[in-house]
């Protein structure tokens, strides 16, 4: 559905995108992550034709956006819905009228656009707020209106640029659940630009890490998490906070599909008991239990023995400090 091939963008001697190649299949929710300045927003602008790529190709459903201009580019943009960090609603219009707006611009007759807008407000759970202006809506409700507006032209792709970074934790969860349910119900492809790894963990099927305008890592979440030493895996499941006690004999391990009980079984069978689990993270992502743990051992010798035994069973030892 989305295909980027050696996409490059330069600004006055600086390189924002240094030959990005990336594929997102139809119906996937794909996360683009990276620090500020990594090239995430430039990538979105090139993908929508708001910026002209210096070289390379950006194809959506087989159409090369980088080769279009004028009316053809505007027509192609109708297959893309945009959701921003802030909903950017028109203050003077009601929720219903905000959703209608892009259809009005496209020349859709009043009755048809009103029916479509009402249908979309129902889809995002805001039928009872149709007559409210943005100032009468919460941040989460405004974002729901923004999502409904992005779906007005029945796009094939939903591009979300930091869609939850201005929301609280509870509202973020609601918006992410909505996006996931819309993908399931409508079959759309979703590309999410974010710096929040929790967003990727929550709903993404696949992810790409950008650094300095380059793809550092990309793949399905299951593949990424299968290698706990990879940059994205380390960010998705971070190491627990280190102990303040420099004398504690700890061992840091990363789990990818291995039950925690297996670690204790290995320790017991090799005579290297674990005194305690000092801290850690365990959760299920993409159907696989993953985690990073700091284990406490009785002494340095036992820690080293346990490290060897875990490695022999394919369990990744992240650090022995």
Strand content: 25-35%
CATH architecture of the largest domain: 3-Layer(aba) Sandwich
Mean model confidence by pLDDT? 88
- Number-wise, the strands total 14
The number of domains: 2
Largest sheet: 6 strands, mixed
The structure class reads: alpha/beta
Q: Percent of residues in helical segments? A: 25-40%
Q: Total helix count? A: 11
CATH-derived topology of the largest domain: Rossmann fold
- Strand arrangement, major sheet: 6-7-8-3-9-10
**Span between N and C termini?**
46 Å
What is the CATH class name of the largest domain? Answer: Alpha Beta
Sketch the topology as an H/E string, one letter per element. Answer: EEEHEEHEHHHEHEHEEHHEHEEHE
GO biological process, one term: amino acid transport
GO molecular function: ATP binding; ATP hydrolysis activity
Function: Part of the ABC transporter FtsEX involved in cellular division. Has ATPase activity.
Subunit structure: Homodimer. Forms a membrane-associated complex with FtsX.
Q: What's the structural blueprint in terms of helices and strands?
A:
Layout: E1 2-11, E2 14-24, E3 29-33, H1 40-47, E4 55-60, E5 63-64, H2 70-77, E6 80-83, H3 95-105, H4 110-123, H5 139-150, E7 157-161, H6 169-186, E8 189-194, H7 197-203, E9 206-211, E10 214-220, H8 221-225, H9 231-236, E11 249-256, H10 260-269, E12 274-285, E13 288-297, H11 300-312, E14 316-319
Parallel strand pairs: 3-8, 3-9, 6-7, 7-8
Antiparallel strand pairs: 1-2, 1-4, 4-5, 9-10, 11-13, 11-14, 12-13
